[in-house]
Amino acid sequence: MTDYRATPRRRKARRAAPMPMAALALACALLASTPGWTQSPAPASASTAATPAPMAIAPFVAQYQVFKDGSVLGDATMQVVRNDDRRWRVDLGMRGTKGLIGLAGINAEQSTVFDVAGGLYRPLAQSTLRKSVFTRKQTVGVYDWRAGQARWTGDVKETRRAPIALQAGDQSGLLINLAVIRDAAPGKALHYRFVDDGRVREHNYNVSTELEEVKVGELNYSAMRVTRSSGNEENVIWVVDGVPTPIRMLQRENGADTYDLRLVEYKGVQ
Questions:
Q1: N or C: which end of the chain has fewer CB within 10 A?
Q2: For residues 95 and 194, which has the higher predicted lDDT (pLDDT)?
Q3: Domain count, the chain
Q4: If we measure between CA atoms, which residue out of 123, 114, 120, 128 comes closest to residue 84?
Q5: Does residue 200 fall inside a structural domain?
């Protein structure tokens, strides 16, 4: 029998990485919004995936290297932190350190504040910040479950400013990564509704029936390959049972790599 698990070199740390600027924007959005996030969730629609059994979530910090076509472009950090007794936050920050991306000082940060309702991760607010030497663009979204709608402000396209009607099970892009970790099983089909940055898309993933070996530093992992294809875009996430973060995240457009995040290490956070 193939062993899913592998033990990383370090598993615990005393504290998470500092709060990114995107997360600070979320804190302001939540303070300015109407209270009552956990009340009256929007009704489920016929297209909503079945509610999985509740699963505990725990804080962690994961470090990645960012590749494109086999060359290192920079590094990335993904973390889950507990905001308070009922709310969590997931962050992903990417920083260019090599080549033209490094010279241009290109950085990107994403954050989602969420709670857990009926065993599902439910987004409450979302922020994206993109920076370079000459530009700075930020969008902030609020998921108002009491009103049943989400809306984005900031440097968002005019066509994406209209409110979006929420459905139970709606996820931000970062939460879909966590949901895939929670839900993946060999041969399983996964379905999520992506609601992020003023956009709505159906995300359908297929989990491979066979495990494949993925090397992370000096360790070998037996991983599930989880794939989504839509038009000219392909996303692949490698998941290992017992590891709270993807081992690898690859995005391709028109057959060429857009980005490729490969895990260096992860740590549990007390």
A1: N
A2: 194
A3: 1
A4: 114
A5: yes
Least confident of 31-35, 190-194, 251-255: 31-35
Instruction: Note whether residue 202 is domain-resident.
Output: yes
List the structure tokens of 126: 């979302």
Indicate whether 130 belongs to any domain.
yes
DSSP 173-217: HHHHHHHHHHH--TT-EEEEEEEETTEEEEEEEEE-SS-EEEEET
Q: What is the mean pLDDT of residues 193-220?
A: 93
Q: Which residue, chain included where needed, has tokens 């970790």?
A: 181
Paired tokens of 163 = 């409110």
Identify the pLDDT of residue 211: 96
In angstroms, the CA 206 to CA 163 distance is 30
pLDDT value, residue 19 = 52
Please, are residues 137 and 100 in contact by the beta-carbon 8 Å criterion?
A: no
Q: How far apart are CA 177 and CA 159, in angstroms?
A: 26
Residue 256 lies in a domain: yes
Measured between alpha carbons, how far is residue 207 from residues 70, 87, 216 in Å?
24, 29, 20
Q: Which helix (H) or strand (E) holds 225?
A: strand 219-230
248, 262 contact by CB (below 8 A) = yes
